[in-house]
Design goal:
By secondary structure, the chain is an all-alpha fold. The chain has one domain. It contains five helices and no strands. Helix 1 packs antiparallel against helix 3 and helix 4 runs antiparallel to helix 5. The chain starts with a helix and ends with a helix. The mean pLDDT is 93.
Length: 106
């Protein structure tokens, strides 16, 4: 998301295979946000940077980092299809890791 948002801010358009941006455009359009607006491009940059920062926080500070990473994953569920799939993988992975950690402590 960070890379795609930066490309969109610089060039004016997202990386779009076949010339069409992803199905996420329908989700944000339904909320009244123009997919090609500067605000949407900045949202990509901010969410992409937040994903990277929260993943690093999770790697180094697991309990608190997990909360940050879960929050960012939930905030990117609208990014169909790739963001939705990756966010679900992250949420499931954190849940599995969390339950495994609890079992090991018991």
């Amino acid at each position: 998301m960070l890379f795609d948002g930066l490309v969109a801010l610089i060039s004016g358009s997202y990386i779009a295979p076949g010339g069409q941006i992803g199905p996420w455009q329908h989700a944000v359009s339904a909320l009244g946000v123009a997919p090609l607006s500067t605000g949407m491009k900045m949202a990509f940059v901010v969410l992409g940077a937040a994903y990277i920062a929260s993943a690093a926080a999770y790697a180094f500070y697991k309990p608190r980092g997990a909360s940050y990473l879960c929050a960012v994953a939930v905030l990117t569920l609208w990014y169909l299809p790739l963001g939705t799939i990756l966010s679900m993988v992250v949420l499931i992975s954190i849940a599995v890791d969390s339950s495994r950690t609890r079992r090991m402590r018991a």
